[in-house]
Amino acid sequence: MAAMHDPEDPTTRAAIEACLDIVRRRGADADPPIGATADAADLDAALRGAITFDGLGVDAAVGLVRDVIDPAVVALDSPRFVALIPAAPTLAAKAFDAVVATMTYSPESWLEAAGAIAAENQVLRLLADAAGLPSGAGGCFTSGGSAANLAGLAVARDRGHGAGSVVLVSSAAHASVARAAHLLGIEVRDVQADDRGRLLGAAVGDALGSTPNVSAVVASAGTTNAGVIDDLDGIADACERHGVWFHVDAAYGGGALLAPSVRPRFHGIERADSIVIDPHKWLFSTLDCGALLYRRPELAVATFRQEASYLELLHADGGWNPSDYAFHLTRRARGLPLWFSLVVHGTSAYVDAIERALALTRSAAEMIRSTPGVTLLNDPDLSVLLFARDGWVEADYLVWARRLLDDGIAFVVPSRWHGEVVGRAVFLHPSTSIELFESILAAMR
Ligand SMILES: Cc1ncc(COP(=O)(O)O)c(C=O)c1O
């Protein structure tokens, strides 16, 4: 047997033990270093010669991970990561993700991986119920929100007006929506969001009244920059009046559908034709994991089913084939780490963890309001705060963010609000503390 596939081979055994050791140690580390970025030339030099004809062995490979790769990565799952959209996979999800890779399930078709698909679909059903979609709703897991937005809009286009169609998008929507439209050959029309960054039903209604050939309207349930939930019910009314597909991008905010304190803000999401929720964001799943739900999944089959003689058997048994619901064939069982963690911990642990981030956001907003010289710019719908320091210009924010990273305190990335550079913090990790945010604010003095 080739050594690489021989479980008795000493190198292979050592590789398995070394990897399990990393999983164990990292899993036990509640506050991993925030990490750092690095110079490309330095990394090139440090990694030069790593891949050789005969192999360097386990110690060398693990040493490169420990000494070169890991120190040059900012830890997305650290409680100190409050930039962009963080991640906070549960330890059970992380551990089971390693199992998923080991099992090599291939849940493209029911025939190949019925058990894995049944479990993934249980999670999709949970999300559909949280959103209030009907019992026939379903979909699949994708690599993330970008892929899921692309897939949802492809189906909207195909069941609509075909080539030359138009999608109406809020000026505050995620950049992946415009990219998806570009890839699909769909024209994007921006609809102006209000001052808070919220897309209103009236604005969508007006735009639909004056724009021919619209195949879809995209609303956000949690905009990336400010965490704003659009007027979903009003937009659903407008879409219904005009017979237009209603797509809701809840990639970031969708986890909060489980949180009673903010659930009413999502009113109207139950009327969507397609919904995107990223479990690798606020549902504590491992990377990468996006969920795509269709009200009528049968419409997606026409867009995505790949036909080939060698695939005919996969289509013959009538089972649920995730490859019918987005652009992929072979796929990782991305929904299983979340399924495993949900089974282990139950949904109440998820509700608590999401509510914890929401409560932290409210406390941090209060802290900003009572800090002289700093202004809170948004009244948060979810867990994003935007704030400005009196008298600061872009360079000040960049120095502030860089210093916080270099000092190992936090990873923050400034953003823009109404054209001005501002501070931004996103809370999602249940272990992020108000003390951490206090240090972030203190660094603005
Ligand atoms: C609202 C929203 N949509 C889509 C995306 C893209 O998701 P992904 O990074 O998983 O492709 C993001 C990412 O932050 C997002 O916040």
CA gyration radius, whole angstroms: 23 Å
The description of the largest β-sheet is: 7 strands, mixed
Named at the architecture level, the CATH assignment of the largest domain is 3-Layer(aba) Sandwich
Helical segment count: 16
Helix content: 40-55%
Q: What is the ordering of alpha helices and beta strands?
A: HHHHHEHEHEHEHEEHEHHHHEEHEEH
Mean pLDDT over all positions: 96
CATH class of the largest domain, anyone? Alpha Beta
- Beta-strand residue fraction: 5-15%
- What strand line-up does the widest sheet have? 1-7-6-5-4-2-3
Low-confidence sequence ranges: none
Global geometry: globular
CATH superfamily of the largest domain: Type I PLP-dependent aspartate aminotransferase-like (Major domain)
Which molecules are bound in this entry? pyridoxal-5'-phosphate
SSE-based structural type: alpha/beta
Tell me briefly what this model is.
This protein is of the alpha/beta class and 445 residues long.
How would you characterize this protein structure?
This protein folds into 2 domains: 97-345, Type I PLP-dependent aspartate aminotransferase-like (Major domain) (Aspartate Aminotransferase, domain 2), CATH 3.40.640.10; 347-442, Aspartate Aminotransferase, domain 1, CATH 3.90.1150. 43% of the residues lie in helices and 12% in strands. The protein has 16 helices and 11 strands. A 7-stranded mixed β-sheet has the order 1-7-6-5-4-2-3, with helices on both faces. A 4-stranded antiparallel β-sheet has the order 8-9-11-10, covered by helices on one side. The longest helix is centred in the last third of the chain and has 23 residues, at 347-369. It is globular, with a radius of gyration of 23 Å. It starts with 9 loop residues before the first helix and ends with a helix. The mean pLDDT is 96. The structure holds pyridoxal-5'-phosphate (PLP). Pyridoxal-5'-phosphate binds next to helix 6.
